[in-house]
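Weekly modeling sync, notes
Attendees: S.R. (lead), two postdocs, one rotation student

Agenda item 3: backlog of single-chain predictions. S.R. asked that every request posted to the team notebook include the full sequence so nobody has to chase files. The rotation student volunteered to paste the first one in as an example of the format we agreed on. Action items at the bottom.

Example entry:
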Amino acid sequence: MLKFKPFEASYNGRRRVPDDGWSEDFVKYSYNFTWEKKPEITDKGSRLVNGMLVVWRRIYGCRWKRYQRSHDDTTKWEFLWSLILFFTFSLLLVWFYFWWEAHNDYNEFNWFLYNRSGEWSDGTVPILATTAAGFTYIAFLMILALCHIAVGQQLNLHWLHKIGVSTALLTTAIGFISVNQTWGEEWAVIPISLQATGPFLHLGALVAVTALAWLVAGQVARTEKTRFQVVVLLLYLSVLLGLYMAPLSITSPCIMDHANLTPRPDVIGHQGAPMLAPENTILSFQRALQMNVSGLEADVAISLDGIPFLMRDRTLRRTTDVGKVFPSRQLDDASSFNWTDLHSLNAGQWFLKDDPFWTVQSMAQREVMLVGNQSVCSLEQLLRLATPHNHTVVFNLRRPPHGHPCYHSWINDTLEVIRLSGIPQHLVMWTPDWDRGQVRQVAPGLQQTSVEKLPPQVLHQQGISRLLLRYSQASPYDIREFSRSNVSVTLYTVNEPWLFSVLWCSGVSSVSSEAPNILKKVPYPIWLMSPDEYCLIWVAADLISFTVVIGIFVFQNYHIIRWRLSGMRSYNPEQIMLSAAVRRSSRDVNIMKEKLIFSGQPQYLSWWVVKEVSNGVGSAEDLYMENGFDYYNNEGICH
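Predicted structure, as returned to the notebook:
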C-alpha cells in the first residue's frame, strides 16, 4: 500500500524516464512515499465485501484479476448489452406475469393443444418451467449488473452470458408471437388482472424505484460529466414522477364503498366439478352440488338414435375408452354412436390416467374406485339430478353433422327431453340461437340466453333476458349497463379467487366455474378498499418515497457538498491529495494507477502522485500556498 512519510522538501533536478516510455520532470518539492505490503484485512465486514466483489466480477464477467480494468468507464458496446439485458428482463417479466395470471385458463389452453395435436398433455408445465428458469437467470444477471453499478465497477458481460441473454430474448419473442397468433384472446387477462393487482404492483414499483435512488445518487456523485448527471437525474425523476401520478390511471371495481358491494354471485358448476371428478359425468355434478353451486352447466350432443348426452369433444378419444372398445371408430364423431354403445364406454379411467388438474393423488381409495367406474351421462340424468334441488341448468347444444338422422330435429329432440324430465322450465337457460320463436311456443318458460354480446335494446326485442359470455367480453361498465336494463350476465370460466373477486365487485350476477370447490372458500372479495382509504395510502406512499429519495441523495453527496461549501482552512497531506484527486478524472487516475501496478514498478507511483498534484493545481508552489503551507520551510501558515 501507499504510505506517507513525514512531510519534507527536497530538490531533484534529474529527468527520469520510466521503462514504459513515460517522462516527466520532477517538480522541486514533492512527497516522499514508500511502497509497503498491504496489511491483511482483519475486519470480517471488509473481508465479506471484498469477497462479494470478487464473486460478482467472476460470475458476471469472468474477471479473475483484482484490478483488471475494474474501474474503467463502461464501453459503449457493453452499455448496449446492458440495455439488451434490461429489455430482456422487462420482456420476461411481462411474459412471466402473463402466464402467472393465465392460471385461470390452463385447462382451456390444454384443451386447445389437444384439438391441434390429438394428444392430451399438460402443455403449461414446460412453458412454466422454462419461463421460471429464464426469468431467474436474467433477474440474477440484472442484480449483478446493479451491484457493479453500485460499487463503481465496469460492466463487462461475459460472452457466455451474452449468448444466454440472446437466447432468452429470442425464445421469449417467439413465445409472444405464438400466443398472439394462436391464443390471442388470452391477452385480455392482463388488463383484467391489473384491476386486482394494480394498486399493489404500484406500491411494489414505488419501493423498487425508491431503492434505485441509492444507485442513481451514487452515479451522480461519482461522475464528473455534467451532461451525464443531468440525463440520469431527469430520467430518474421522470420515472419517479410517473409512479407518483400512476394511481390517477389505476381503475379497479374493488375500490368502492363497502355499502355498494352487491350480493355474492351465484356459482354454476361448469361440467360439474371437473377438478374432483371426470367432466360431464354424474359424479362430477354430484360433487358440484356438494360445493353449494346454484346451477349446473354441460355440453350436449345428440346420439345416433336421438338421445341427448353430455360430451365436450367432437370425438370420444380423450374422455372414454373408445380406443379399446371400438378401436376402428375412435376418430368418428361422437354423434355417430347410438346410446347403447355410448353407455357401454368407461368415462372415468382417463381422469385417473391423465390427472388434468393434479388432484388424483389427494383422493381416497374409495373415491378413486368411484371415479374409475363412471360412464357417459345423458341430459335426462342431469335434469333429474338438478330438479329436486331447484338448481339452474345451462347447456351448450351442439348440432349433429350433416347426414345425421337428427340433423333437422335436434332442437325438438332436446325440448322433448326437457319436457319429460319434469324440471321447471324457468330453471333451464336455453342458449341455442336457432328457431327461438318455435322454442318459445313449445316451452315459453325457458330462460332465453344469448352467447353473443348484443346491446340491451336488441336483447329485449328478441325476448332474451340473460347473457352467457366469456369473462373477458364484459367490462365492469358493461355489467352495470346490463344490470340497469334487467339483463342478467353469467361469465365463464372463472376459477381463480382474484378473478371472482373482481367480477363480484363489478356487480356480475353469476359465474360459471370449473373450480366450485375453490370459490366456495371465497365468502368475501379478496380485498375491498374505499376511495378515501386508497387516496390516503397513495399520498402517504408518495410522501415517504420522496423523503427517502431526498435523504439518499443528501447522504450520498454529503462529502462533496461539505467539501464545496465548508471552505476548509487546514489540510494535512492526505487532504491535499484528496483535494487534487477531486479535480482529476477518476478514470485517468485509475488507469495511471493500474498501469503502475501491473507494470511491476510501484517505485514510480510517487512520481505519478506528484504528476497528478502538479497537473491538478498548476504547480507544487501553488498547491502549497493554496492549502496553507510554507513553500520554503514546510510549515503550515494557516491553522
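Discussion: group reviewed the output briefly. The chain has a mean pLDDT of 83.
Action items: rotation student to repeat for the remaining queue; S.R. to check formatting next week.
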